[in-house]
Amino acid sequence: MEKMKWNYIQSGKCSPSFNMALDEALLDWHSKGEIGPVLRFYEWDPATLSIGYFQSVAKEIDMEAVERYGLGFVRRPTGGRGVLHEHELTYSVIVSEDYPDMPETVTEAYRVISGGLLEGFRNLGLEASFSVPSEQVSEQLKRPKSGVCFDTSSWYELVVEGKKVAGSAQTRQKGVILQHGAILLSLDEDKLVSLFKFASEEIREQVRKGLPEKAVAIDRLTARDISVADCLEAFSKGFEKALNLELVPYVLSPEQLKVVKEIENRKYANDEWTYRK
């Protein structure tokens, strides 16, 4: 079968509000047919706590801790729970819902898109697999005891040795799927847990102690020193293989960058959006 061509963007380190604005702009342009499907990789400057679309800042986030660590803070357009973007590489996929062989259901679309992550981890020499939660865990997902993304693995997220190594979130708008997620290079569990509010200190301690059993970063899975550059190569090739596509470098025009900045200022850098819940 002939390979589909996708746009490939390496954004490097960007501000949290710009990162989310660019993902939204790419979704919008793809919905209008102005650009084809996109695979994008990016990092965060400063290190940032991102929260899901439906999360409550007042109920779930310790903003004093966020400020104490000098972190950025942004609300994503996607669901899911809080993610500390510090020692990681973030990916985003923008593709039409009617893309050839793309499943209609959210969980099955996760499986197809996340196949690129699966192959990427294997390219790094790590035996990753998809998580398939038990019935008990599936029930827990409906009533999470914390706002921490890596506290539980959802359907078809990536695990190594039974522990979550990549967390993803998805939204569908204007006939387009936006899926983005974090590939962990390293994880500071104490710092992560300190950013959230809990019903009690006992529950906080349970989550803190439990995280190493539920989530693991690449640096704890191999003696090799794996860099962002290593991950860019491994995961870009992983997506090419899993989705049978060819990545073509794409550079934003000055006009496109202006649109991104407009979205950023209107939405993701605006407190009305960030603290809406």
Automatic annotation (TrEMBL):
Keyword Transferase appears in the UniProt entry: no
Keywords: Ligase
GO molecular function, one term: ligase activity
All residue ranges annotated as the BPL/LPL catalytic domain in the record: 33-247
A Pfam family of this chain: LplA-B_cat
Protein's recorded name: Lipoate--protein ligase family protein
Superkingdom, natural source: Bacteria
Upper classification of the organism: Bacteria, Bacillati, Bacillota, Bacilli, Bacillales
SUPFAM superfamilies: Class II aaRS and biotin synthetases
